[in-house]
Amino acid sequence: MLIWEVCKYMDIKTCFLFRQVNRPARWIMSTYAPYHEVATHGLESLRAMLRTGLARYFTMTRLYRALCTEKCEVCDLRFGGFVFLLTATRCCFACLCTAPELRVMLLKDAKDHTRLGGVIHRRMAVLRCIQGSYGLRGSEVGRVQVVSAGALLNLAELDVEGRTRVENHRPRLLFRFAASTTLPLLDPMAVQGVVQHGLRCEGCRVSNQYPRRSSSNFYIDDRYVPLRPVYSRADYMAHFDTCTAARRLWRDITTGNNAPGD
Length: 262
Ligand SMILES: [Zn+2]
Ligand SMILES: [Zn+2]
What we know:
Layout: H1 2-7, H2 12-19, H3 23-30, H4 33-41, H5 43-52, H6 60-67, E1 82-84, E2 89-91, H7 93-98, E3 104-106, H8 107-114, H9 117-123, E4 127-128, E5 132-134, E6 139-141, E7 145-148, H10 149-153, H11 160-168, H12 174-178, E8 180-182, E9 185-186, E10 195-196, H13 202-206, E11 218-220, E12 223-225, H14 233-242, H15 244-254
Antiparallel strand pairs: 1-2, 1-8, 3-7, 4-7, 5-6, 9-10, 11-12
Helix pairs in contact: 2-3, 4-5, 4-6
The protein binds zinc ion (2 copies).
């Protein structure tokens, strides 16, 4: 339908306002595939976009694209179980915690460091954090406004001095959590309604094969977080073929030597 072509260019907030106009408008939106799939499978992200003020910066198709993207768009290596809301980017937990392009800084600091307040307000997505506890220690974040430091560094108006100040700025890790949600993977080619949340290898866990402390691992709130691989179904089947511990565990379970979950 031609109206769906128009919907492609509506931001998320406009989609919601349009939906409230009358019954035909509600029907149009609920039969518009990106809206339907995001509202069904990505409700947490959709709600967060609406509650943080980001809904006017992104189209429904942008969030739908993230919903249907399997790999982390930052490292392009791992299963991405999260979405970084400030740029609607699918990401993995490791990149969410460590990738420089996913740094989040206070709007106030961004303005102070760059003196580009007007440009930031005109051209960048600004997120008003939902007050609550974030991180392993449950530290409190208030209704502060934040922006993506990565997007800030892409502004053509940013001078060398401002760039250096932004690059050297060390914002709180907590803001990254306040600017993200989990997001399952929807494979549009699969049976309707089937989503993936990522799989961890039980064989690797019981045989303690997760990587030891290394430079690729990281800390949150001064606590060490081991990097535990998360797989899509297809990637896990490939891993299963090479994981002796997983195959041994599967053999024990299917022959009755061990109970699932032991
Ligand atoms: Zn990643
Ligand atoms: Zn394994």
